[in-house]
Amino acid sequence: MMKIKYSVYLIVFVVSLRSSFGQFQLPDGVTATPSFLDEIRKNYAGENAYPFDLNTVSQTVKIPVRVHIIKNRNGFAGVNLVDVNNSVSIANSYFKNIGIRFFIDSVNYVNDYNYGYITNDSNTVELLTKFGLVNRINLFLADSVKKAPYRSYGYTYFPDVADSNYIFLDKNYITGNALTTLLGHFMGLLSTHENLGGSELASENNCATSGDYICDTYADPDLYNKVDSTCKYIGTARDNNGKYFVPSVANLMSHSREDCKCIFSPLQYRRMYYYYLKYRQNLKY
Fold first, then answer.
1. Structural domain that includes position 242
2. Is residue 26 part of a domain?
3. How far is residue 109's CA from residue 131's CA, in Å, rounded to a whole number?
4. Is residue 30 part of a domain?
């Protein structure tokens, strides 16, 4: 009896710990590149002068998605098509604000589990050559995604990369907002905690030249494992001036808990629309 009670307590403790701190949630695998930072800097004035109003977006473009489900070593898909459709629907609930709607064009089953472990030095090029299609987003659902040196829930490419119509996503993250976040990167958004171009100050005074280069998102010290089950930031990070960060836990481009993320900011929407027009119009149905 004591063993049973101990086991129950242990299970409850582990579930509670996971729920409270989200420590088993993998991070986003997309980080800024020098080339895309150069692109943002080059286009920054034009982007911010672009006449864009969320209230006046009327035209809807349809972007096809080819779903590639890589079967596991037991020959099973390991993912439910209902969940795939729901994930696309969640993305559409956000992207409708800029007149973009994604739809599943077709589903392809890859019958080789060796492709199911996506890593930087794996046979990814061979996978893309065999199964990737032009003029649509190729969504590869895999058993594991590793963007060196760590595992992530998925990654994709920024729009300045030629022939970059690919998204790789861990099957365990097909539900929720993971696909929406990756589509944000795909359309030109940096993570809110990005610091390759310089760390944003807590005051956000340098928002135009650092961080995610967007001035209506909160300065973010990286929220990974720093948001509790009540969506409260529990970190204590300070900026280079010693000021405490007061970040948003709701932004979809942050490392906040999955169940806390629910918004793009207006200027994030403008950037996605701007870079869609500049780089991604070939995907229009």
1. 192-263
2. no
3. 10
4. no
pTM value is 0.91
272: domain CATH number is 3.40.390.10
Tell me the per-residue pLDDT of 259-273, one tens digit each, with 9 for 90 and over: 999 999 999 999 999
pLDDT tens-place string over residues 48-104: 998 888 888 878 999 999 999 999 999 999 999 999 999 999 999 999 999 999 999
Inter-helix orientation angle 178-186/81-95, to 10°: 50
Tally of structural domains, the chain: 2
Q: Which residues pair with 104 in a beta bridge?
A: 65
Strand arrangement of the beta sheet that strand 117-118 belongs to: 117-118, 144-147, 150-152
Q: What SS3 string covers 29-73?
A: CCCCCHHHHHHHHHHHHHHHHCCCCHHHCCCCEEEEEEEEEECCC
Q: Are residues 235 and 151 in the same domain?
A: no
Higher confidence at residue 21 or residue 177?
A: 177
Query: How are beta strands 166-170 and 154-156 bridged, if at all?
Result: antiparallel
Structure tokens belonging to residue 205: 């005074």
Structure tokens at 60: 């809807």
- Is the Cβ–Cβ distance between 102 and 88 less than 8 Å? yes
Q: In angstroms, rounded to a whole number, what is the distance separating the alpha carbons of residues 244 and 247?
A: 9
